[in-house]
Amino acid sequence: MNRYSETLYDAWGQSFAVDKVLFETHTDHQHLVIFKNSHYGRVMALDGVIQTTEADEFIYHESLTHIPLLAHGDVKKVLIIGGGDGGILREVCKHKNVESITMVEIDNAVVEMSREHLPKHSDGAFDDSRFQLVIDDGANFVAETEQTFDVIISDSTDPIGPGEVLFTQDFYGNCKRCLNPGGVLVTQNGVPFMQADELISTHERQQVHFADNTFYTAAIPTYVGGVMAFSWASDNKDLRAQNLEIIKARFEQAELAVRFYTPELHLGAFALPGYIQEHLK
Amino acid sequence: MASVSLPAPPVTISPASEAEIYRKAIETHGSPLLVINPAKIRRAYRSLNDALPGVGLYFAIKANPHRAVVKTLAECGASFDIATSGEIELLREIKVRGDNCIHTHPIKRDKDIRDALRYGCTKFVVDNLEEIKKFIPYRNRVGILLRVSFPNPNSPVDLSKKFGCTPDNAIQLAETATEMGIKIKGFSFHAGSQCACPENHTHAVERCAELLMHYNETHEQNMSILDIGGGFPVPYDNGTPDIESFCAPIRNALKLLPEHIAVIAEPGRFLVADAATAVSTVIGVADRCDGRWYYLDDGVYGSYSGRIYDHANYPIRVFSDETSVTHPTIMAGPTCDSIDVFAENINIPELKIGDLVVGEMMGAYTNATATDFNLFPRAKIIESTDAAF
Ligand SMILES: Cc1ncc(COP(=O)(O)O)c(C=O)c1O
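Above: query sequence and pyridoxal-5'-phosphate SMILES. Below: predicted holo structure tokens.
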């Protein structure tokens, strides 16, 4: 039986039974594979690191989408950086009041491949009339665009790899530049139990640009090593300190079909364990 | 004229008819050629594997980074010793996984570390505090070996001069690393290349075994790997021990290690030296006061580069049926530099322009270090499993 072993850490790691390889390329100095696993469904891995699986992607995508959108409460324009698999897009599309969704992917091949091999991630969202795809480097796009957005979601790969430019101080500054007043930037920020330095450096770099900067978390089984952190950056401190009733009301009004998100979890996600708080002092 | 006279390489004079297969090769592929025989690589891999049972063999790509060589060793089940991002690219192309590799260059830029991590290689070698500090941001991802130096002035290539901490310093460095959150998984050493005898290896194994056991008894963190490096010799001339007798004392020394310690090695030369044959053509002849000079279309700036960098004296084969009359002979490469001489102090029968000269055991540190000096094209590299190569 074939196995796929993650090569993130020398001392330990997760390993999957590969029931069937659906897609594999060794181009552009990277190795990308999509395979089937009996528990996790379709699994995508890049350079030895699990990127997404059909079974647990909802936890990640709902966390990165509904928490900023419902915290804001009046989102019209959303920018997704990366996110070529379409999972974030699918969740944003569930918000009827959103008027335009721009997604910036560096390579159209990622989108094409995901549509074909991970169709449940986008679930038709690429055909949503509010959606616009831009093929560009995300760092470049935020540096140059004239448009502004209410929420920016950075759904990047890890900072060791192609996503490196999406973890720089310049990138965060440019995101701030194209956020509307009171807008919020959220980013994928790794698993702090294993990658504390990533959290610390993001905090240092975002603090420079935003009045309010913290992290929230969710436990995603295949991002191993405890909870995953998402950075939260905004100039409006009140966004994350809403009371439960307001969030509940927005959630009910939005009529979202979700499996992970609840208003209680939304507020609780900002309660950080001591070992993470320690890094933010 | 070359300023230092070189010792004579071993020379074989074969019947003219035996040149036929080499002549056919250059008629098809052009001259000069370097012919790699994958069957010989497989044979060398098996014999080292037999001589060091249970030791993980990490081929040091630097010895010969040709794709066919690396591919053959991957098929044999070898792991890989990498030193640069260029070597990583090569391994990616032939689909070797990063967890099958160890990055052994003791000095790295941040980008080198990131490239290796991104490739999935999480094992690294360091030898000093400044290098250890470079791993702080990656401390949870990596496993680090500490390179200890055991100077070997008797090896033609003493690799402990440039790299390695002293054995006396090793424990303290490991402790400092632990304080920084970096776990040292074990020790590595490199006993020198083309070692004439195994004593430096056995001495280093014994000392490292002591250090490992002492460390494991006195620290909470346990070391679990000993990397015994490369250095396994090949018979360029008759004085070299065979691999079984070279490794027997090393096997004995390894018995000192507790059972849970994994042992790996980084053989370069031994796996590939025998597997390549250089075929070049006489392009000029001159009688000078010190003997007859033949100018070949390959030399020390090409496949014979190891003559300079690696201090290797490759066995030479010429073809003639006139073995009764021989001349003092010097063989030189085609460039305009006087250092470009690869055989001196030999006596061989007369050769003509167009005749062939074959260099044997030219698979290690040959094409790896060849240059484009004078813009002479490098020898074309082809593969053949014919027994002549
Ligand atoms: C770190 C390291 N490992 C392994 C080798 C391979 O040595 P050898 O070809 O003598 O086996 C070298 C050669 O320079 C080296 O520097």
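Chain B has eleven helices and 17 strands.
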